[in-house]
Amino acid sequence: MSGEVLEHEGLADLVRQRPGFLMLYKFAIEELMTKLRILSEEFDLAHRHDPIEHITSRVKRPEAIEVKARRRGLAPDLAAIAEGLDDVAGVRVVCPFVSDVYSVAEMLTRQDDVELLRRKDYIATPKDNGYRSLHLIVRIPVFLSDRVERVKVEVQLRTIAMDFWATLEHKLFYKYESQVPTDFATELANAAGLAAHLDSRMEDLHQRLRGPVDEWGDPANPAVLGQGG
Ligand code: GTP
Ligand code: MG
Description:
The protein is α+β, with helices and mostly antiparallel strands and 229 residues long. Helices cover 52% and strands 18% of the residues. The protein is built from nine helices and five strands. The chain has a five-stranded mixed sheet with strand order 1-2-5-4-3. The protein starts with a helix and ends with a helix. Bound molecules: guanosine-5'-triphosphate and magnesium ion. Residues 87, 120, 127, 129, 131, 135, 156, 166, 169-170, 174 line the site of guanosine-5'-triphosphate. Residues 87, 120, 127, 129, 131, 135, 156, 166, 169-170, 174 line the site of guanosine-5'-triphosphate (GTP).
């Protein structure tokens, strides 16, 4: 046990000493951000609706990489991190409506150079605490001066309501060191239910305003737009 801890000590330093390692993840994020911005702008032009509210991203800090590598029991080297950690690069896509979450995920993952490694649908099946989001682990190529690296990125897609809940829950409880009191956990799960309810009401309004759409998401009957739902 103490041997394992010792082995991992300095892993954060190792990451810092190899600037090319985290740079790859930064590049992968930039590639993905460009893809998402293109989808946002072009979809808006084509369908008069922007499916992305905002996007944030982060590269995991070396200290956090060390902690997680230790927790996961990974070998203390960079190859093991690249293989064993899916969230060194993270992109969070916040969408107006639930339907946007799924269409952005679909538009992204059907791109030829985006390889989908894993998909966790916490919207269809929320976590026990109420957490909802769609998580994708994708791998995308980063073209360097002398080679191509395929880099993993964790993409979290969620609505504004899901993001509101998750952000506040994170501040309150996520990775809470000790046990969360039961009544707090129940309140929080109830609040997640309210957020889900709000999402479905807003989705309903959104669909009514758009009216029936064809397979491209365009109004099947453009006159509906003028009727105010
Ligand atoms: P981690 O070890 O936390 O990364 O979990 P995991 O590898 O099992 O993956 P999972 O898809 O469950 O979660 C990945 C990420 O989603 C987390 O690092 C958080 O950013 C987010 N997340 C997952 N569960 C929760 C939650 O209950 N609350 C909040 N606020 N965020 C969560
Ligand atoms: Mg994580």
